[in-house]
Each structure stands twice: as C-alpha cells, then as structure tokens.
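User: What would this chain look like folded?
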Amino acid sequence: MIIKQQKPIKVGNSYAMTIDPAFFRAAGIKPTNDLTMRYAPEGAFITVLPTKEVSDDVRREERANVMESKITPEFRQWMEDNLEKNKEAFKELAHL
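Assistant: Here's the prediction, encoded as structure tokens.
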C-alpha cells in the first residue's frame, strides 16, 4: 500500500485529486476507462473501481442509499404506520 499526502485542487464547483500513472498501470486502468467512486459522507474514505467491475448488488445498494437519504423520518414513520394499519388490504391487492 502506498500512502501519499496531497491537497485537492478546485475544478469548477468541484474538487479533484491527481493519481499517479504508476497506480493506473498497476491496476490495469486506462485514462479512457469509466470509473465508479464510492464514498460515505461520514468518513474520509474513497473506493475507486472500474465501472465494469461494479456488481448489480452494489448498484442496487447505492440506489437504495440514495433513496434512503431522501426520506425524512416523519415520512418513514407515516409509511410504517399506514403499512401496518392497511396490511390486510395490501395482502388482498397483492393477490389480484
């Protein structure tokens, strides 16, 4: 593992970090490859993968995380209350 300290650079409204060409060669990544970055807002850890190596499970998990972040606690509680209250009706609808 190589640890390198550097500062991000401002690019428009975003920030960027440079990656050594040696890392790209060792990982078999070309500058023209699509890459997928995974990061959690609560931690300073970034994972970079070639997009073709990202599994469907990871894609579903990422979509679920995005949706989760958009649902307020009040809406979640409303949904849970109504799902429980109307459980029998939903079961009947599922069998139509």
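The chain has a mean pLDDT of 84. If you want, I can go into more detail on any region.
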